[in-house]
Amino acid sequence: MSKTPQKKASKKRAASATHPKVPTIGYAILTSLAHHPHTGYELTQLMGPPRNYMWEARHSQVYPTLQLLTRYGYVAFEDVQQDSRPDKKVYEITGPGIEALRNWAKKGPTHVPVRDEFSVKMAALRMLSPGEAVAVLTRQIELVEGEIAAINLHLVDFARRLDIPEPPPSDHRQFCLISAIRLSRDLKITAADAYRKLLDDLSRQEESARVVRTHAKRPR
Amino acid sequence: MSKTPQKKASKKRAASATHPKVPTIGYAILTSLAHHPHTGYELTQLMGPPRNYMWEARHSQVYPTLQLLTRYGYVAFEDVQQDSRPDKKVYEITGPGIEALRNWAKKGPTHVPVRDEFSVKMAALRMLSPGEAVAVLTRQIELVEGEIAAINLHLVDFARRLDIPEPPPSDHRQFCLISAIRLSRDLKITAADAYRKLLDDLSRQEESARVVRTHAKRPR
DNA sequence: TGTTACATGTAAATGGTTACATGATTGC
DNA sequence: GCAATCATGTAACCATTTACATGTAACA
To answer: DSSP for chain B?
Structure first.
């Protein structure tokens, strides 16, 4: 088992335009790279489901975006040869990349368009019988509760790996990231609470309907 | 300039494929139409910012989607001539449309990809000084609090217009819709709380940094 | 006279997903 | 042999935004 991870220095940097337009996924990647160098594969794992805490993306978007950021000079990569693994490109953020990220972070405020498929479905639940709606809500609650548990696990794991005390000190390098991950969890908790409340209301209604039915009245 | 709002009956209905693929925006439109007929213009107002409670869209997406739904036979429209306004098309949902909406609502659960630009920004705030970060958070909190106030206003207005008691009865036709709108407000409240918490933590940090700089006691 | 509201579309470009494509290594 | 993990890319398609395009009426 000869393990000789070699480095072939080939840092590349391209000329950047005045204010090149970077999509949000680009800033999400820059934010990740600002705290640690990563390969495209690792970034894909950080940003792909189920680890979608802030901005979900797949590898087919990550790799082209890394090429874009490289063209802009916002990131640079090193080719790393591995002998028992495919070669990889380890990306890190550059000075201009840090500047671009800072400028983006400073400007705002940011309008966040709401695009929540299950909220649409929630509004459409009145097309179903209370019983059918209860089934849909039950399944959704299970899904979201699993996601919440996964985020909690990840937060604990994260804190242990980096020896972050509880509560994390506000001057820690990862403090803002942890706040954002917690927010993503809290948003899911808020959603799950709403689903549970609607479920309760509808099942109470279903029950009273059943009582009415057993008193010889026709449903719907 | 005679005032004669006429109706020219021209309900159209096209042959539908077996299981035509409808994007989420289509179901959002069907959900709106399931509770009341609307024109494309009205739908645009319901779905466009700032009234983006579940699924944001602009008119350039709404009109083509209505054409798609018409081709599928899920909606039908009436041409309504108005003399002191441009003519309009009033769309309503059809039987097959209701069926398609019900089938979509029943299946799931629905993975909701997280794609929140401000959460990315939140994680990137550590690139800024505490003072700069505090400014960004302050502006964002103002924005979101305005949106929350607008949703509350809309809910009150809605309840008054439709004579819905407080709390709304769970068997009301609009109950699921109201629940979804409340959820969209609660999600914004959760986000605002997180922004405020981070703001507090960072401004305390900023203050202690200032104390260190001035070698003086804490002001206030 | 200019702006807003009403009313409906299309075109071009960008953003994002799904599927295609390849290939080595580890473990069952 | 077969699946999973590591590793990187491209092509085709679908979804969304921004800009182009038009016209009337009410209001200030």
So the answer is: -----EEE---------SS----HHHHHHHHHHHHS-EEHHHHHHHHSTT--SSB---HHHHHHHHHHHHHHTSEEEEEEE-SSS--EEEEEE-HHHHHHHHHHHHS-------B-HHHHHHHHGGGS-HHHHHHHHHHHHHHHHHHHHHHHHHHHHHHHHHT--SSPPTTSTTHHHHHHHHHHHHHHHHHHHHHHHHHHHHHHHHHHHHHHHHT-PPP-
